[in-house]
Specification:
about 350 residues, mainly alpha, 16 helices, about 0% strand
């Protein structure tokens, strides 16, 4: 009897060690695998429709083509437009002669502004600082976009791995899920509940991001159109895409635009961009996203907000989905605990 227990302990310890080693090995590819699982759960109903007419492999391949087109076309369009606009801005404001004229305009504005004179600010130091900020902002954005294009090879490799995983998650998803449900000792009913919670959290997080991103894009585009920023439609599309990043997403667009407006002597337009950006464009994300996601998950908006922000901080961009999923699974486990120990808890 003691020998059997010893063997069981040795086996379980070895099993845990080998499993941890396996997860350590595939850890660099966590995000492609994670997104493949999320997309597979979202597009599985479409895959099942295809299987009514075609075999599973062809159905998975066809679903894969649809996903690729839906992701790559908008992404390629946004990146192309972004690079074009950044290059135009850099060419417009990056030249010494034009910046010299801009600084002269700022000096004239400061000389003729009664508020500035009452505050006792030195116009030379202020305009010099604005010049420095303008150059720094434009250079930072330009270098960031350049770095983004240089990292495109890594993105393509990870995207291909995601598609490869997605194909098998779609084709063999039922088998994988049944195998996991058989191995884990929670019971099929509870395991199905956790899977449903996972898919609901992923779906609601993405849906909330799309809705909030579209609203932010429209507001940002209108703001740029009113204040005379070139290419407001393009920048609106870019802000809609960056809306996936809570708090700081659209900030990366409207904040530099406001500073550049101020640095080029358009003080009123710059102040309007910064004020509306802070009070409306970025703030609406923190108001709408928690309610949209929380309503579908039956989760409190405060938990949704902090799990989303925490997810982005810990996991990067994928955290806007991964954070709410972890929070939803945590809530589900506590619900299971409450249900399992209902009798004992009622005695308290």
């Amino acid at each position: 009897m003691e020998m059997n227990k010893t063997r069981n302990y040795i086996f379980l310890i070895t099993l845990g060690g080998v499993s941890l080693l396996f997860f350590y090995v595939i850890n660099p590819f966590f995000y492609p695998i994670f997104w493949a699982a999320v997309i597979a759960s979202l597009f599985y109903p479409l895959f099942k429709r295809f299987t009514k007419l075609l075999n599973p492999s062809i159905s998975a391949a066809l679903t894969l083509v649809i996903v690729t087109v839906m992701v790559l076309l908008p992404l390629s369009l946004i990146v192309t437009l972004l690079i074009k606009e950044i290059v135009n801005i850099f060419n417009s404001y990056g030249q010494t002669d034009q910046l010299g004229g801009v600084i002269q305009d700022v000096n004239n504005f400061l000389h003729n502004n009664e508020l500035i004179q009452k505050m006792g600010l030195n116009d030379t130091s202020v305009s010099g600082r604005l010049d420095e900020i303008g150059r720094s902002v434009v250079t930072f954005v330009y270098v960031s976009v350049k770095s983004l294009t240089q990292n495109s090879l890594e993105f393509i490799a990870l995207f291909v791995l995601m598609l490869y995983s997605l194909f098998f998650f779609l084709r063999d998803g039922d088998k994988i899920l049944k195998k996991l449900m058989y191995i884990f000792p929670l019971g099929n009913r509870y395991e199905q509940l956790l899977y449903d919670k996972f898919t609901a959290a992923a779906s609601s997080a993405i849906k909330g991001t799309v809705i909030v991103g579209l609203i932010q894009g429209v507001l940002g585009g209108l703001l740029f159109w009113v204040t005379g920023v070139p290419g407001p439609l393009i920048w609106g599309l870019i802000m809609a895409a960056l809306g996936a990043i809570p708090v700081t997403g659209t900030f990366l667009v409207w904040f530099p635009a406001g500073l550049i407006k101020i640095a080029t002597g358009h003080m009123a337009q710059g102040v309007i961009i910064l004020t509306v950006g802070i009070l409306l464009v970025s703030t609406i994300d923190n108001i709408l996203r928690p309610f949209i996601v929380g309503k579908e998950l039956e989760m409190h908006p405060v938990i949704v907000l902090f799990s989303t922000l925490g997810g982005v901080v810990v996991f990067g961009l994928s955290g806007f989905v991964l954070g709410p999923i972890i929070a939803a699974l945590c809530q589900s486990f506590w619900d299971l605990y409450e249900n399992y120990y209902k009798t004992e808890l009622s005695k308290n």
